[in-house]
């Protein structure tokens, strides 16, 4: 938890950007796994964490935008609960730690919300991604689940996004602290990436390291020699010499700040000549993208810069032909780069996307494309100082996608499908780092993690 004043200042800043009515910020509750008492590890809602800082279930914060008064709704721990959990702070103690002076039982929230609605006051609510919270809110307010969506407040969401997007020095320090754990996870994977090793053993070793240092994963790890499968959570392959192992994984700090790093590893410690060339192309794209970042530069522009470098690098193999600008403009490049360049990162690994991905990543003057590949770009608008973004270009050879486009005759004047036949079993390469936008440019966060060909090969060899 940060200093008490941090949460007071954050709520004050939010109140200045949203006017009239009640702003409701629900925390999360416990979530059952396979039965009621076997709960999944608790994860607090990130906006609740940001403005209220309390990492315990069944709490709701309400800011009265007309009076400036903030109330924390929850319940003191019962004796029955204490028997199972041990001593817990009272609701008043929790509230005091984050500068809230008014508390009320959770059972009072229904009357407060219904009275406000009957009085014609506006209820501002972020979108609810958990069914449990949707059901509770609809019951408290006395409306249907369908009607609940009408209370999603664009003004509140955009204000939350604006405030949360710019990271304080303390937040950056938290991210860099957890990146030290993530670095060791990736070094473990590099050392273990030997012929005969299993993907599952590597995933287990990384996760065990994170847990042993007080962290958990900020998302389900993507570790596979089938790197062309973008979100591959299948970990049952055995590694062989010559394989490429893609490792996209990151730890989450005890305060729930994320990290998100990808490295691609040559199993056994050596890239072959073709792997080296394509790896270097991806690295060139990443380095150029990072170098291009500075306040006011549209992320869309950086994405297209990286895509052009990827295309030019593959021309040496005859995979693309013709004008690179046309390949980018038409979207033909998405055959090998079907995702975006990255996303904002903070308390969420894809920061604030639960609030509305387009409000986070787009905005005035930027409209999301519907084209394959380009539609997956999560961030397009100009970047600002204090933002943390990921930069993660990649090259992938996806047989099903190649076959579909080939059968449809797509972009045949720009793509040599016959040349792609030699790459059907290549897999994929992605390189990703977490980058802070500074006042004058950008800075890769955390201690360096092996990234060049020479560094990765050295870290992989025993």
UniProtKB/TrEMBL annotation:
Gene Ontology molecular-function annotations: manganese ion binding; metalloaminopeptidase activity
Domain Aminopeptidase P N-terminal: 2-134
GO CC terms in record: cytosol
The UniProt record lists the keyword Protease: yes
Biological processes per GO annotation: proteolysis
Pfam family, one: Peptidase_M24
InterPro entries in UniProt: Aminopep_P_N, Creatin/AminoP/Spt16_N, Creatinase/aminopeptidase-like, Pept_M24, X-Pro_dipept-like
Reaction equation(s) it catalyzes: Release of any N-terminal amino acid, including proline, that is linked to proline, even from a dipeptide or tripeptide
Top-level taxon: Bacteria
Record Gene3D superfamilies: Creatinase/methionine aminopeptidase superfamily, Creatinase/prolidase N-terminal domain
Cofactor(s) it depends on: Mn(2+)
Keyword annotations of the record: Aminopeptidase, Hydrolase, Manganese, Metal-binding, Metalloprotease, Protease
Family the UniProt entry places it in: Belongs to the peptidase M24B family.
Name of the protein in question: Xaa-Pro aminopeptidase
UniProt organism field: Chitinivorax tropicus
Origin organism lineage: Bacteria, Pseudomonadati, Pseudomonadota, Betaproteobacteria, Chitinivorax
């Amino acid at each position: 938890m940060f200093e008490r004043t941090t949460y007071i200042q954050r709520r004050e800043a939010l109140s200045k950007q949203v006017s009239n009515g009640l702003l409701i910020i629900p925390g999360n509750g416990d979530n059952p796994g396979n039965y009621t008492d076997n709960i999944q590890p608790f994860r607090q809602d990130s906006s609740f964490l940001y403005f209220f800082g309390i990492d315990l279930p069944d709490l709701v914060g309400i800011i009265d935008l007309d009076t400036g008064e903030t109330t924390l709704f929850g319940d003191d721990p019962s004796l029955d609960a204490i028997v199972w959990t041990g001593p817990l702070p009272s609701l008043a103690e929790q509230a005091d730690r984050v500068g809230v002076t008014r508390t009320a039982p959770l059972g009072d929230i229904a009357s407060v919300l219904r009275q406000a609605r009957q009085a014609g006051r506006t209820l501002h609510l972020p979108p609810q991604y958990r069914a449990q919270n949707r059901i509770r809110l609809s019951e408290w307010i006395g409306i249907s689940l369908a009607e609940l969506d009408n209370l999603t407040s664009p003004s509140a969401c955009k204000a939350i996004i604006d405030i949360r997007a710019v990271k304080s020095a303390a937040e950056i320090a938290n991210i860099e602290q957890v990146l030290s754990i993530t670095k060791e996870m990736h070094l473990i994977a590099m050392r273990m990436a030997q012929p005969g090793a299993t993907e599952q053993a590597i995933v287990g070793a990384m996760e065990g390291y994170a847990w042993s240092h007080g962290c958990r994963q900020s998302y389900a790890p993507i570790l596979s020699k089938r790197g062309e499968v973008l979100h591959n959570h299948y970990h049952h392959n055995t590694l062989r010499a010559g394989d490429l192992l893609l490792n996209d994984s990151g730890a989450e700090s005890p305060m729930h700040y994320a990290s998100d790093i990808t490295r691609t590893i040559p199993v056994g410690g050596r890239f072959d000549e073709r792997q080296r060339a394509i790896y270097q192309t991806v690295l060139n794209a990443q380095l150029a993208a990072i170098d291009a970042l500075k306040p006011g530069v549209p992320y869309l522009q950086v994405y297209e810069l990286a895509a052009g470098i990827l295309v030019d690098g593959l021309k040496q193999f005859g995979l693309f032909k013709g004008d690179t600008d046309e390949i980018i403009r038409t979207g033909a490049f998405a055959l090998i780069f079907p995702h975006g360049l990255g996303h904002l990162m903070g308390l969420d690994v894809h920061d604030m996307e639960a609030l509305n991905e387009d409000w986070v990543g787009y905005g005035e003057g930027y409209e999301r494309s519907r084209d394959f590949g380009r539609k997956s770009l999560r961030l397009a608008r100009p970047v600002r100082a204090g933002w943390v973004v990921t930069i993660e270009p990649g090259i992938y050879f996806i047989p099903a996608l190649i076959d579909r486009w080939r059968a449809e005759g797509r972009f045949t004047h720009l793509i040599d499908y016959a040349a792609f036949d030699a790459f059907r079993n290549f897999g994929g390469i992605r390189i990703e780092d977490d980058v802070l936008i500074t006042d004058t440019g950008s800075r890769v966060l955390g201690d360096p993690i092996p990234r060049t060909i020479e560094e990765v090969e050295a870290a992989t060899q025993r």
